[in-house]
Specification:
By secondary structure, this protein is an alpha/beta fold.
Length: about 240
């Protein structure tokens, strides 16, 4: 089958558990490191699906690769090629498909509970899962594009995920591994300190202490979401 294209926007924000899922299920994938200056593909036709990871920038920034990414997402949606976005990736999807991205009421950094909404679409993607603790690192959030259905929310962010046909946009980070969290805490130490007054921000010590409690359950949710998403891949 055609490979899944994974897009990286920052050196420390790689595919995490998503690549582990792909390897375990024999799904070929290739990395496109936009942070290293790699060109955005002009067409999605060479890929079975597109996956966009996180990043510290805003989709509203004047960056040279953003217009190409937005056009690529729109082309994939038009061709029913599944798109999956994590945090910045979800915001790119929202922007490309007709939504907008702006400041969230509070910054969220660390572990926080999310709730699955009651809808046929949410049931299709999450099954019996009604809530879980996800990892967060964002100060902005998206509105829903036309036709999208909101499927996940938290106390600090109403739009934690939306689905639109075979496409899934996440505001939270279900791809995290223990080593990624440790790396993000090191890279983002100043940001954590600057946002310490936010009710949605934890210290690096709090985050890492909670890893054993929350990583296994979140990984199980990620497996379910990735499994459902992968059913739509162009084989």
């Amino acid at each position: 089958m055609k490979p899944i294209a994974i897009f990286r926007h920052a050196p420390h924000e790689g595919p995490g558990h998503f690549s582990t899922f792909c390897d375990a299920h024999g799904l070929p994938w290739e990395m496109h490191c936009l942070d290293a200056g790699e060109a955005v593909p002009t067409s999605p036709d060479a890929y079975s699906g597109l996956v966009f990871m996180g990043g510290p920038m805003s989709v509203n920034d004047d960056l040279p690769w953003i217009p190409g990414v937005l056009a690529l997402i729109r082309a994939a949606a038009a061709g029913d090629i599944p798109v999956l976005g994590h945090c910045l990736g979800g915001q790119l999807m929202a922007r490309a498909l007709g939504g907008s991205v702006g400041r969230n009421p509070v910054k969220e950094i660390g572990w926080g509970g999310v709730r699955v909404l009651e809808s046929p679409q949410a049931l299709e993607w999450f099954g019996p899962v009604r809530s879980f603790t996800a990892f967060h690192w964002h100060g902005e959030t998206f509105t829903l594009p036309p036709g999208a259905r909101r499927v996940l929310e938290s106390d600090h962010c109403a739009n934690q995920a939306f689905v639109l046909g075979p496409h899934l946009a996440l505001q939270c980070h279900v791809e995290m591994t223990e080593s990624m969290i440790q790396s993000w805490c090191e890279v983002g130490g100043e940001e954590i300190a600057a946002a310490a007054d936010s009710p949605g921000v934890q210290t690096r010590e709090q985050m890492q202490a909670l890893n054993p409690d929350h990583l296994p359950a979140m990984r199980a949710v990620a497996e379910r979401l990735y499994g459902h998403w992968s059913q739509g891949l162009k084989r």
